[in-house]
Structure formats: structure tokens, C-alpha cells
Amino acid sequence: MGRRQDLERRQMLLARFGRRIASETRIDSLLTIIAEEVRHILNADRCSVFLIEVEKSELWTKVALGVGEKVLRIPMGQGIAGFVAKTGSAVNIRDAYRDTRFTQDFDRITGYQTKTVLAVPLKDRDGKALGVFEVLNKAKGAFNEEDEGFLRILATIASSSIENAKLYEYLRKSHLETIYRMAMVAEYRDQQDTASHLHRISKYTGLVAAELGLPLDLVEDLRYASPLHDIGKVAIPDSILLKPGKLTPDEYEEMKKHPVYGGRMLENAESRLLKLARNIALSHHEHWDGTGYPYSLKGEEIPLEARIVSVVDVYDALTTRRVYKGAWSVEDTFRYMNEQSGRLFDPKVIDAFVRCRSMVEDLMKDEGHMGGANGYNA
Ligand code: C2E
Ligand code: SIN
Ligand code: SIN
Ligand code: FE
């Protein structure tokens, strides 16, 4: 390829690079896209993006192995990546195995043979080291100065995307953590094992939502919204919530207000996640046939997210001991759930739940949580 054409090709690829990474806010997929693009643009066989973990004074990267991928770590200052991160200068090597900075550990793990290496530092807006870009084994010959200049430009573009993604991820994580803690507050009084109960509800909801074919980001939001379903119970007095026996009709009427309380607590939320949580809190005791509460909604009038949580909530309530009841066996519970398909529950959701049965049982085993051998039916 002529020099001019080569330049034009690179300019085009550069523009595409910018477009592709601009729309990605998740650090994992961002790093994958960056590595793919850079490898392609520089005609290299591999590209690794190393990120610095300041607290541990380490660099980490993900490498693809025959089966799946693995996170590899290298101490600051060690290997080529560690050298670049520490010194902030670029490194261009023609024969890695003859360079004393090179560590063969990675090649040993991946079964790869590194020959040429070009590595440049990734820096944030303030010039602080973020990580290292490495391209390995150029298709023909060694990496040259032009490659280096190009990799530096790519590193600059990538750095700002990586910084943004990190910030975005941090916000998302704090948001999710706060939500999860809100759910803990709500369940703290009446669940002996609050954390594992919330964990199960979250996991079951994720399984069913994925089985129903919902988009992955929605599945994830549902996993985090579902533990808030009973948040309205914080407004129910101890004398009712913790009563070790059957509720009187009056007490039950009071208890049945918890969805309305929960709905109010989450009203007018901004984020999609909290909107889902609000629908779930308000409608998780509605029944498919219109006999539920608080509004006797019927069929698809009930938001899908609430129809899903209604199923997993009852499943978990039945297979768990409560102050007012023993735990049912898995067998009895699935029989009951099937009987209630089309009555209490959306048949499509029950079908999906039944298809998840082995995964549900595995999850219960993981949590050391087994249904009772012969609980009693209400
Ligand atoms: P929960 O304990 O989380 O139960 C959620 C739902 O699981 C119940 O909604 C019900 O649909 C189902 N469920 C739970 N236990 C049984 C059972 O033994 N048999 C059958 N067939 N279904 C069961 P529900 O009935 O609207 O109750 C909402 C909440 O009211 C319950 O949440 C619980 O906190 C409270 N509650 C209901 N009944 C009693 C009771 O007899 N005594 C006490 N102390 N609390 C109760
Ligand atoms: C290193 O020494 O930086 C590791 C080289 C590699 O990525 O294979
Ligand atoms: C949790 O259960 O710890 C949070 C929700 C999840 O990650 O599934
Ligand atoms: Fe409830």
C-alpha cells in the first residue's frame, strides 16, 4: 500500500475509532472495542490495554484464552507495561525475548509468542498515569515512529473515554449500592437473613427476566429494582409485621397497605431503575385474574416487572420459614405455583420460571437454603 493511501486509511480508521468508543460507557466493552480497533489500525496481532490499580500498585489486563478470558496482573515497575506505567515513556522493542524488561509470564499463560512490542502510556486529563497500551507482533517488520505517533493519538482519545467510563461506572455502582441498602432497611425487621433473602429475590428475578428474553440492561435494572418490592413494609407496625401467628382480618387489611406505601415512597422517580422499583412495589400483590390488591388490576394491566416479582416473591416466601409459617418443599411449591398459573400468576412468567427450575434449585443450594421437607400448606 502506498504511503498516501496508508495515511488515508488510518485517518478513516481513526474517525471510526472515535465514533465507536464515544458511545460506550461500560469499561469492559470499552476496553474490548479499543483493543480490537487498535490492533486493526496498527496491523498488530494483539493489543492489550493495561489499567493501573493505584491502591494495589498493580496493572491489570484481560486476555482472551481458548475458553473465556482471564484477568492478568503485573506489579508496577515490572515487565514492559510496568516500566511504561512507571516511567511514562514509550517503549518500542524488536525482539521481546532479548529485552530484560520483558516478562515471559504472560506468554506462558496464554501460549503466545511475543516478538515485537510497542507500548505507550495512557494518561488522564491531568497527565496522571491511567494505564498502558501495548500492541504486539506487527504483521510485517517492527513498529516504527509513525506507528508510535499513531498509538499516542489513539491513547489520548482512549484515555478520555476510559476516564468517562470509570466515572460512569462509579456513579452507577454508588447508585446501586444505595438502592440495595434501602432494601436492607426495609427488610431488616422481619427477615432473619435479610441479605440472602434479597440476594435470592434479585437472582430469581434476573433468571426469569432473561428467560423471558428481555434486553440485558433491563434484566440488570430488574435485578436491582426487585429487592425494593417490600419497601413499604417499613411503615407497618411491629405488632403486625412480627406477629408469630395468623393475622386478624383487620391486621391483614393494614398489612395490605404496604404496596401503596411503597409506591408512594418511590413515586416520581427519575431513573428507569427506580421507576421499575416503584411499579414492582405498588403491584407485586396484584393477581393475574384480578383478585389481588391494592387495585385489583388484571392481566397485562399489571406491569410485567410486577408480574415477574410476584412469582419469585411467593416462591421465596413459601420455601422460606416465616414467623407465621414453616418452609415448604421445592416440590410442593412448584406444584402450587403451577396450579396458580392463570389465577394468581401470568402463565408466561410461570412457564419461564419453571424452565429456570434447575438454576433456581442450584441457587438455593449455593445459599445453603433448602425448602422444608414437609411444610404445611395454607
Ligand atoms: P410475605 O411473607 O413475604 O409473603 C408474600 C406472599 O407469599 C403472600 O402475600 C402470599 O401470596 C404468599 N404466601 C406466603 N405465605 C404463604 C402461605 O403460607 N400460603 C400461601 N398460599 N401463600 C403464602 P400476602 O398473603 O398478600 O401477604 C403479604 C405479607 O403479609 C406477607 O409477606 C407477610 O409479611 C404478611 N402476612 C401474610 N399473612 C400473614 C400471617 O398470617 N401472619 C403474619 N404475621 N404475617 C402475614
Ligand atoms: C509485559 O512485559 O509487559 C508483558 C508483555 C505482554 O503483554 O505479553
Ligand atoms: C446482590 O444480590 O448482592 C446484589 C444484586 C446482584 O448483584 O445480583
Ligand atoms: Fe409484599
Tally of individual helices: 15
Count of distinct structural domains: 2
What is the second-level CATH architecture of the largest domain?
Orthogonal Bundle
Distinct bound molecules: ligand C2E, succinic acid, fe (iii) ion
Mean pLDDT: 90
Q: Give me the count of strands.
A: 6
The stretches of 5 or more residues where confidence is low (pLDDT under 50) are 372-378
Helical proportion? 40-55%
Structure report:
This protein has 378 residues and is an alpha+beta fold. The chain has two domains: 3-167, GAF domain (Beta-Lactamase, 2-Layer Sandwich); 189-366, Hypothetical protein af1432 (Orthogonal Bundle). The chain is built from 15 helices and six strands. It has helices spanning 3-22, 27-41, 79-87, 105-110, 145-187, 194-211, 216-225, 238-241, 249-255, 258-265, 272-283, 304-319, 330-339, 347-355, 357-366; strands at 44-53, 58-64, 69-75, 91-93, 117-123, 129-138. The chain has a six-stranded antiparallel beta sheet with strand order 3-2-1-6-5-4, sandwiched between helices. Strand 2 and strand 3 (69-75) form a beta hairpin. Helix 2 runs antiparallel to helix 5 and helix 6 (194-211) crosses helix 12 (304-319). The termini are far apart. The model is unreliable at 372-378 (pLDDT under 50). One succinic acid binds next to helix 6.
